[in-house]
C-alpha cells in the first residue's frame, strides 16, 4: 500500500510531490468574509412547503446546505466521529490488516485519491471507504478494529440512510419528480468515506482534496465541531463551510445535476488542510447501483427545456470519473451532443 500520510508526516517538511501548481494552490488561507453563507435548513419545522423551498433554493444557488434538527441523535454523531478518529489513529500496520488496498474490494484504504498511481501530485488525505447496503452483507467487510466500529457505524449508516431518503423525498417533491424515481435503484449503493487530514507542514501549498464535484446523488457529511476545512466555490470565490455542532453538511452531487436536467447544481468544493490539528470527516455518498441508468427525469424535459445529458449506466459514468481529473472532459462525456 502507498504510505498513508498519517504514518510519515510527523516532523517532515512538505514533500515536493505534494506541492501543487500555483493555479490550484490555496495560497492565503483566510478566505475573505463573504456575504455568501451556506444556508442552514431546519428539518424539524412543520411547514414542509417552506422546508422544500429552502432546500431547492440552496441546491440551485450553492449546491450545498446544512441541516439541523435532522433526527439523528447527537450522541450517535459523537460516537461515530470518535470511532472514525480512532480508526485513523491506529498504527499503519493495524489499519493495513483491517482493510484491503484493492480499490475493487467492498472495503479499502487509500491515500491522496483513488488515482494515486497516475496523478501528477498528491493530496494530504487518507481515506477508508466501504459500502453500506445491504448491511447484513457489507458489515463483514468493515474493519473489526476499533472493536466498536461495526456496532457504531452500522447504527450511524442506518440513521443517515433514512435521513438521505427524507432529503431526497423533499427534493423530488420540490422538483415535481415522482419519489419512486429516487428509490428505484438510485439509492442502492450508499458508501461511507472516512477522510482523515493529518496536520500539514504547509497548508498554503497543498490541499486535502482538490476542487471537485461528487459523483453521486447527494453526500451527507459529518464534520468536527470546531475545524474548518471544507470550502465551496461560488461566484469565483471560496466560501468556508463553518461547522455547526451536530449538523450535517449536505451537497448535491453530479448525478442529481443530471437527473434534475441541470436545475440543481453539483457544487464544486475542495478541502484545505491546517497545521495545528488533524481533521476527520465522514462522507455518506448516496449513489445508484452500477446498472442503474442515469438520465434527466422525463417530467423535466420538454421542447423548451431539452435534455442536457444523455442516458448512461451509472457504472460508465463512475468509471469515467475515476480516470479523469479534468471536469470538462467528464461534462463532454455525459452531455447530449446537441446540449
Ligand atoms: O472532508 C471533507 O470536508 C469533504 C470531503 C469530500 O469532499 C468528499 O468526500 O467528497
Ligand atoms: Fe466531495
UniProtKB/TrEMBL annotation:
<dbReference type="GO" id="GO:0046872">
    <property type="term" value="F:metal ion binding"/>
</dbReference>
<keyword id="KW-0560">Oxidoreductase</keyword>
<comment type="similarity">
    <text>Belongs to the iron/ascorbate-dependent oxidoreductase family.</text>
</comment>
<keyword id="KW-0479">Metal-binding</keyword>
<dbReference type="Pfam" id="PF03171">
    <property type="entry name" value="2OG-FeII_Oxy"/>
</dbReference>
<dbReference type="GO" id="GO:0016491">
    <property type="term" value="F:oxidoreductase activity"/>
</dbReference>
<dbReference type="InterPro" id="IPR026992">
    <property type="entry name" value="DIOX_N"/>
</dbReference>
<dbReference type="InterPro" id="IPR005123">
    <property type="entry name" value="Oxoglu/Fe-dep_dioxygenase_dom"/>
</dbReference>
<dbReference type="InterPro" id="IPR027443">
    <property type="entry name" value="IPNS-like_sf"/>
</dbReference>
<keyword id="KW-0408">Iron</keyword>
<dbReference type="InterPro" id="IPR044861">
    <property type="entry name" value="IPNS-like_FE2OG_OXY"/>
</dbReference>
<keyword id="KW-0847">Vitamin C</keyword>
<dbReference type="Pfam" id="PF14226">
    <property type="entry name" value="DIOX_N"/>
</dbReference>
<dbReference type="GO" id="GO:0031418">
    <property type="term" value="F:L-ascorbic acid binding"/>
</dbReference>
<feature type="domain" description="Fe2OG dioxygenase">
    <location>
        <begin position="187"/>
        <end position="288"/>
    </location>
</feature>
<protein>
    <recommendedName>
        <fullName>Fe2OG dioxygenase domain-containing protein</fullName>
    </recommendedName>
</protein>
<dbReference type="InterPro" id="IPR050295">
    <property type="entry name" value="Plant_2OG-oxidoreductases"/>
</dbReference>
